[in-house]
Design a protein that fits this description.
Shape: flat
Largest sheet: 5 strands, antiparallel
Strand order of the largest sheet: 1-2-3-5-4
Distance between the termini: 47 Å
Length: 286
């Protein structure tokens, strides 16, 4: 097929030899099947920020570290340079997460690098060499569901041990090959320790998986793996070797609503002060 404009630089650099087909177009990227020498891979082309429909990106970017202080200041001020750096950080987040999770033992596509907003990575296929189906397109038995749910719980545990939460995990972000589930789509992965939204995102990820698999194995619906894992994580007791039960005893401690509201108000005031600093900084530039 005709080479997309964004992939052309990779062709010129010899990283891609041929674009074979478009695989899919999603809310943050378009994915193509490409040939790199004798290997068939996929190229994920991230959409420009003004064309991306991924909502509430700020929630996901909270806590991401930027080593360069100049870049960090520019990103906080929201200048054009800062926005460009924010976009680059968003694009690099997925390849960084893929390397990190592969090292942790999580099944993800093998990354080959991110070049000018294009991520080259492994094309996950079935036994016939065809593109592996998404989880929502796979029929399974009760035994299959229990086995693959166990795998997904293990992967989310390993992700949390590696300090990451997927943030958008569902049956649409999991491929299934002959060896089981493979987790994909990670540009919004969040820092489990530094992002204030990490806990509810993690719970949503795990519960999405449990709810899906419980359609085929209803006994899974009563498990509480998300709460069990997060409690161990907060206590500093979650390790890759942790044996999970799916059971969790809810605390009978009554929450201090007043203290919680005070924290919310303090956070709101801090955010308003930060936004005012950005406005003041932009005024100074003008």
């Amino acid at each position: 097929m005709k080479i997309p404009k964004r992939i052309q630089p990779l062709v010129e650099e010899g990283l891609v030899d041929e674009v074979l087909s478009q695989l899919m177009s999603g809310k943050e990227a378009t994915v193509y099947v490409v040939r790199c020498g004798e290997d068939i891979r996929c190229a994920k082309v991230y959409k420009d920020v003004d064309k991306r429909s991924f909502k509430q990106a700020v929630q996901y970017q909270e806590g991401r570290k930027v080593r360069n202080s100049r870049r960090a200041r520019a990103m906080e001020k929201g200048s054009k340079f800062g926005r460009d750096q924010q976009e680059e950080a968003w694009q690099n987040a997925e390849v960084d997460a893929l390397y990190r999770l592969a090292d942790a033992g999580v099944r993800v596509p093998k990354p080959y690098g991110c070049y000018s907003g294009v991520l080259l990575m492994e094309l996950v296929t079935d036994d016939d060499g065809m593109v592996a189906p998404r989880l929502n397109d796979v029929e399974m038995t009760t035994e299959d569901a229990i086995r693959d749910h166990t795998s997904m719980i293990e992967y989310t545990k390993l992700m949390l041990c590696a300090g990451l939460v997927h943030g958008d995990l569902s049956e649409f972000n999991v491929l299934v090959d002959s060896n089981g589930p493979v987790i994909i789509d990670l540009p919004q992965a969040v820092d489990a320790a530094a992002n204030n939204n990490a806990e509810w995102m993690f719970a949503r990820d795990v519960n999405n998986m449990t709810n899906y698999y419980s359609q085929f194995a209803p006994e899974l619906a009563v498990t509480k793996y998300a709460k069990e894992m997060w409690a161990l994580f907060e206590a500093g007791e979650l390790t890759p070797q942790s044996k999970l039960t799916g059971e969790f005893q809810e605390s009978e401690h009554i929450a201090d609503v007043g203290a919680i509201l005070e924290e919310i108000n303090a956070a709101r005031e801090e955010e308003q002060e930060r936004l005012q600093r950005i406005v003041d900084a932009n005024s100074d530039e003008d």
